[in-house]
């Protein structure tokens, strides 16, 4: 009798365990919105097309039924004004696929348990012990199935969120250092200098022709265009006004180029850009990284490093160094230099007592984003910055470049 009870417990334990582990994520339903834009196509109101890659298509181990669930529950994107967000159901449908697959396995195991119990019962020939054993198999199978198929109802009554996971909602983040088209004003390669720092425009004829990619990687900007459009690092190909190039994403390179040219003569902007890529300055989707630009300046045998904050910036300007900073418009609606993120070069003091520094802005040929007094006809406001408010912007990166 003890042996019969033990087998019964084993059967119940198997089904209870499977029920506990698998029923919680039951039928994770992805929410939808009737006013939507499919994720596979660019949102009509965004300034720049975007692409999302469905991870379900790249799974190494396929779960039966997962492709059908993915096609029935697509990712959904909605656009409100200039902001686009996407509801991604991939995790929930993956869990649902696991549950559905497990339910099929449980059904097969239950059927086998029922058949085993039936065979034992038919061959018991009146033996009370074998009849009891057969009943335990049948009872265990039915109990396990009952638990599995009623748990959904019970959990749904307790809290519907236990059985209906919501899709993950994420905002589409554009390249914050990507210069908008309205700011891509034609400009000469070099203009007059400030404190001995030459002024270069990123959207010069030359700047538009020089691609700017991550080291050993093609940045998929402007809707995910690839190597066929831009070539490779060894053999780059760029359209006159295409992405990714210095005009759209090279404010960090041009600001560093200006700083370096105060202390030495570097005339080949394309070679300078290739070296920036090699030093890790380019980060796809984020413009340039200050750490890579510091390495770039050091490559030309100059002193360079992080300023360590406002006091460090003041000290380096006092020493006659050029300070390169990245300003950000995040949570700063009155930022006069950018609507996203942007590198500029502080060339020296204009009014030291008032903490106002002169600025070489590689995109300063335009009044965009028309904040802080800047207009289409008044771009003088882009030639200076106050260290008290950073031109209405936030300060995100900062480093100095000094002579040997």
UniProtKB/TrEMBL annotation:
The keyword Zinc does not apply. The chain crosses the membrane at residues 98-122, 134-155. Residues 237-362 form the Peptidase C39-like domain. Residues 1-30 form the signal peptide. Keywords: Membrane, Signal, Transmembrane, Transmembrane helix. The keyword Signal applies. It holds the Pfam family Peptidase_C39_2. This is Peptidase C39-like domain-containing protein. It comes from Candidatus Falkowbacteria bacterium CG1_02_41_21. The lineage of its organism: Bacteria, Candidatus Falkowiibacteriota.
């Amino acid at each position: 009798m003890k042996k019969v009870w033990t087998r019964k417990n084993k059967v119940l334990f198997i089904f209870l365990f499977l029920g506990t582990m698998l029923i919680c994520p039951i039928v994770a339903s992805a929410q939808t919105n009737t006013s939507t834009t499919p994720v596979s196509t660019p949102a009509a109101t965004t300034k720049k097309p975007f692409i999302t890659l469905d991870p379900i298509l790249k799974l190494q181990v396929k779960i039966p039924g997962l492709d059908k669930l993915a096609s029935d529950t697509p990712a959904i994107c909605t656009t409100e004004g200039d902001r686009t967000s996407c509801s991604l159901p991939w995790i929930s449908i993956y869990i649902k696929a696991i549950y559905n697959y497990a339910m099929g396995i449980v059904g097969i195991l239950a059927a086998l348990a029922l058949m085993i119990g039936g065979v034992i019962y038919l061959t018991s020939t009146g033996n009370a012990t074998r009849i009891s054993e057969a009943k335990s198999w049948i009872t265990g199978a039915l109990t396990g199935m009952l638990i599995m198929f009623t748990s959904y109802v019970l959990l749904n009554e307790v809290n519907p969120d236990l059985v209906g996971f919501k899709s993950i909602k994420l905002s589409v983040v554009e390249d914050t250092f990507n210069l908008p088209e309205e700011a891509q004003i034609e400009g000469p390669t070099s203009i007059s200098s400030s404190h001995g720092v030459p002024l270069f425009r990123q959207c010069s004829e030359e700047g538009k022709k020089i691609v700017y990619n991550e080291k050993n990687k093609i940045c998929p900007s402007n809707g995910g265009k690839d190597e066929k459009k831009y070539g490779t690092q060894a053999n780059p190909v760029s359209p006159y006004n295409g992405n990714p190039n210095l005009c759209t994403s090279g404010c960090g390179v041009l600001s560093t180029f200006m700083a370096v040219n105060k202390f030495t003569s570097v005339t080949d902007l394309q070679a300078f850009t290739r070296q920036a890529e090699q030093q890790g300055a380019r980060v796809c989707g984020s413009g340039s990284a200050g750490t890579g630009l510091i390495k770039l300046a050091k490559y030309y045998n100059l002193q360079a490093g992080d300023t360590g904050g406002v006091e460090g910036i003041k000290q380096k300007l006092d020493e006659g160094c050029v300070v390169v900073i990245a300003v950000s418009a995040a949570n700063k609606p009155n930022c006069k230099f950018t609507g996203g993120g942007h590198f500029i070069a502080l060339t020296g003091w204009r009014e030291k007592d008032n903490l106002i520094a002169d600025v070489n802005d590689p995109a300063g040929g335009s009044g965009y984003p028309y904040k802080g007094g800047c207009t289409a006809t008044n771009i003088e406001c882009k030639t200076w910055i106050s260290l008290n408010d950073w031109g209405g912007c936030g300060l995100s990166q900062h480093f100095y470049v000094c002579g040997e």
